[in-house]
Write a sequence for this structure.
């Protein structure tokens, strides 16, 4: 069995014959223009198309007018192209494949970002469909929240030679943050500085040039597509002096926000004008809210009969102190049990059973995985999974 790994533009290296390959896998299809994958699909017996429509799309330099001329010259109607998700500027190879296949399969298990960071993307861009299973133990990190907002009510200007926007106040703050991070983090930790505007990225590179490029990477959001860093510093640029249309453009680029946020593994540090973005709303306001409540989602357990019962059962242990709704290693724990003598707290995860129509085997696998994520990792304070039915046994047992 033979295989080749190439870019979409390298298909010309292969013989021009139909069904040349048994399987063609197209990765990052949301960044591929439709014409770029046609030579590969022509050579494929079967195709697996992988991508994320909430990541950055392909970049095209063809104007809408030029696209319309080409379309009319080939006798194609815009309505037909839209219906089949084949419009060059608007649709990627992923969109076209999704329309052709009649749907997609969501790869819903997430392992990169700290749970408080992943929760933002999950809520805003994936309709809560992701299962966050990130193991934060042992990662390079600081004893600080996963999402931090640094308030900089600065001024945005255009470079003297034209172009888009720069915020010198945010550049100074980002510089200070990088200095602090590289001093405090372990040597193997990586840092990224990302911004929506190319002139801001270039100004940051000039300011931070002496640093090791392996540890510190600086660029626009497109620079970081497909990458990750232990800590990301996200400078938003918007400030006094910026045209309102530019602020609206930044705020409305949902794919850009999603990529910028999800590059961070342990910490996301947002540098921007807190009140400006709070008033505008959107993704920035959600980031600000997460930072202000330390990433912990609001949780009301007052009417949860199972949690009340769990509290009663766990409190029967001699000298035990039980608290509900705790967070351990970034993940929610239904309860935390603290014993006598300052022993390491033990997390408890309540298994409410398999939802109707769900896969029982997958449910159990995910529950056990979550249980392991709540443990200390050294065997001294392993978490416990409590099936809900055991709460009503006469003689309680725990796993």
């Amino acid at each position: 069995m033979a295989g080749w790994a190439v870019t979409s533009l390298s298909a010309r290296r292969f013989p021009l014959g139909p069904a040349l390959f048994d399987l063609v896998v197209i990765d990052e299809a949301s960044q591929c223009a439709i014409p770029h994958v046609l030579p590969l699909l022509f050579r494929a017996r079967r195709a697996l198309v992988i991508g994320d429509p909430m990541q950055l799309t392909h970049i095209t330099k063809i104007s809408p007018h030029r696209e319309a001329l080409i379309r009319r010259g080939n006798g194609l109607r815009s309505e037909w192209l839209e219906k089949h998700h084949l419009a060059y500027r608007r649709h990627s190879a992923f969109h076209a494949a999704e329309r052709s296949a009649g749907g997609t399969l969501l790869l819903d298990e997430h392992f990169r970002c700290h749970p408080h960071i992943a929760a933002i993307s999950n809520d805003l861009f994936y309709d809560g469909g992701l299962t966050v299973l990130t193991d934060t133990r042992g990662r390079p990190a600081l004893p600080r929240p996963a999402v931090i907002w640094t308030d900089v009510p600065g001024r945005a200007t255009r470079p003297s030679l034209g172009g888009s926007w720069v915020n010198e106040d945010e550049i100074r703050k980002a510089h200070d943050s990088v200095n602090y991070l590289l001093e405090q983090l372990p040597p193997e930790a990586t840092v990224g500085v990302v911004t929506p505007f190319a002139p801001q990225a270039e100004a940051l590179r000039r300011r931070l040039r002496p640093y090791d490029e392996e540890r510190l990477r600086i660029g626009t959001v497109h620079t970081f597509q497909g990458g990750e860093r232990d800590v990301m510093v996200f400078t938003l640029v918007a400030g006094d002096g910026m045209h309102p249309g530019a602020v609206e453009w930044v705020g409305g680029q949902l794919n850009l926000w999603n990529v910028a946020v999800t590059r961070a593994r342990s910490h996301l540090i947002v540098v921007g004008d807190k009140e400006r973005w709070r008033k505008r709303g959107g993704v920035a306001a959600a980031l600000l809210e997460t930072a202000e409540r330390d990433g912990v989602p609001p949780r009301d357990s007052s009417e949860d009969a199972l949690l009340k019962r769990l509290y009663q059962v766990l409190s029967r242990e001699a000298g035990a102190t039980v608290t509900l709704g705790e967070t351990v290693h970034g993940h929610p724990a239904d309860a935390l049990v603290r014993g006598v003598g300052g022993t390491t707290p033990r997390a408890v995860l309540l298994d409410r059973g398999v939802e109707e129509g769900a896969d029982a085997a997958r449910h159990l696998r995910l529950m056990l995985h979550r249980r392991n994520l709540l443990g200390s990792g050294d065997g001294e304070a392993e978490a416990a999974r409590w099936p809900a039915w055991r709460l009503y046994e006469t003689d309680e047992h725990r796993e």
Observations:
- DSSP finds 13 helices and 15 strands in the chain.
- Residues 168-184 form the longest helix (17 residues).
- The radius of gyration is 25 Å.
